[in-house]
From TrEMBL:
It comes from the Bacteria. It holds the Pfam family Glyoxalase_4. The keyword Metal-binding applies. The keyword Membrane does not apply. One of its GO terms (molecular function) is methylmalonyl-CoA epimerase activity. Keywords: Metal-binding. This is Glyoxalase. PANTHER family: METHYLMALONYL-COA EPIMERASE, METHYLMALONYL-COA EPIMERASE, MITOCHONDRIAL. GO terms for biological process: L-methylmalonyl-CoA metabolic process. Residues 7-145 form the VOC domain. It comes from Agromyces rhizosphaerae.
Length: 146
């Protein structure tokens, strides 16, 4: 299987104040923003803190060539909260689109990548965050949409 990191879908930036950051981008002409579309529930969900995952707020904007996501973590223990507390605001992950999430996860395992968090829905959509910070400088995520 080829690398799952070939089709960039989005860049995710962790921020302290989601509303203020969106307002700043809007002043720059970057819009329209929308809430991250949380669709059907996950049938598999492995995250450090489920309530923390649910408490995160996201806003997205589709640019001409890529989606930009802003994430404001809640106070719970999540990888995004730890990143914000340790490093401040900045790029948390790069999200890549894959056609087959389980196959992408298997390929990540073959490449020796540890999983930070993952979720899968009945329709095959979902996400998988790999712990690539030490070598890639950021988290790499793969995602599949329905």
């Amino acid at each position: 299987m080829p690398s799952p990191f070939r089709r960039l879908h989005h860049v995710c930036i962790v921020v302290r104040d989601l509303d203020a950051t969106v307002a700043y981008y809007e002043r720059l002409g970057v819009s329209p923003w929308f809430d991250y579309p949380k669709s059907s529930p996950y049938v598999e969900l492995e995250v450090p803190d489920v309530e923390g995952s649910r408490a995160m707020r996201y806003k997205c904007v589709d640019l001409d060539n890529v989606q930009l996501q802003l994430c404001e973590p809640g106070p719970q223990d999540t990888p995004q909260r730890r990143f914000l507390d340790a490093q401040g605001e900045g790029v948390y992950h790069l999200g890549f689109e894959v056609d087959d999430l389980p196959a992408g996860e298997r390929r990540g395992a073959e490449l020796g990548l540890a999983v930070i968090a993952r979720g899968l829905r009945t329709d095959g959509s979902g996400f998988c965050y790999f712990d690539t910070r030490a070598d890639a400088g950021t988290v790499l995520e793969i995602r599949a949409s329905a």
